[in-house]
Design goal:
- This protein has a single domain, classed as BirA Bifunctional Protein, domain 2.
- The protein has 3 helices and 10 strands; from the N terminus they run βαβββββαββββα.
- It is globular and about 45 Å long.
């Protein structure tokens, strides 16, 4: 009898283009509901029209003024964040059990590797960045914008070890909507993008670079 094939450990990259957040959110949950042991892991690269999203622990009062931008409740971790044009968004639809049998214990390492992928991506453009204890995401580590947030992450890890949601990196955005919320629940937190930091680069280039770094780090032994 022929043995069942094993899906590749290298996540498949799916470009979904510009897509309303709710459509992507529903598709992520449907994909995860339907997946089996043979379903390939996938990275979904998408760009959203303006939207504020709330994590499970979010306080609605952190949306200071929505300005007619939709506010969507999600099932990811974390607080409120903003997605909009000019931002790289990559959703990570993965089965953590393929890389670690105790997926729940591996989740923290998973988050650490996602953050490192962003740090490595920014470093390739001579931008120094860092983590902050107790404040998920990536922050500028020097210069005039030291301490400003440039990338956010929020995940859902189901009891079976399957993940969705993911990471966003600000490339060339209208940053004003970030001032209409308390980003990730922090009043007055500055938010910045790569363009403001002096890096002129296309969204497609950063999408490719971050996806490649994620593939390398998340499949490394």
């Amino acid at each position: 009898m022929q043995a069942a094939s094993t899906p590749s450990t290298l996540p498949r990259i799916v470009h979904r283009g510009i897509e309303p957040y709710q459509l992507t959110f529903d598709a992520m949950r449907a994909f995860t509901d339907a997946r089996t042991e043979q379903t390939p892991n996938e990275f979904w690269i998408v760009e959203h029209p303006p939207v504020f999203t709330l994590g499970l622990g979010a306080d609605q009062s952190h949306v200071l003024a929505a300005h007619d931008i939709p506010v969507v409740q999600t099932d990811r971790g974390g607080e409120v964040t903003y997605h909009g044009p000019g931002q790289v968004v990559i959703y990570l639809l993965m089965d953590l059990r393929r890389s670690h049998p105790k997926a729940r214990l591996f989740a923290r390492e998973f988050v650490h590797k996602i953050e490192q992928s962003v740090i490595n991506t920014l470093a390739a453009y001579n931008l120094d960045s860092e983590r902050k204890q107790g404040a998920p995401g990536i922050y500028v580590s020097n210069g005039d914008w030291k301490g400003a947030k440039i990338a956010a992450l929020g995940l859902k890890v189901r009891g079976n070890g399957c993940t969705y949601h993911g990471v966003s990196l600000n490339v060339t955005m209208d940053l004003a909507p970030f001032s209409w919320i308390n980003p990730c629940g922090y009043a007055g937190l500055a938010t910045v993008d790569m363009n403001t930091l002096g890096v002129s680069v296309t969204l497609a280039e950063v999408q490719h670079a971050l996806a490649k770094n994620l593939q390398e780090l998340l499949t490394a032994s």
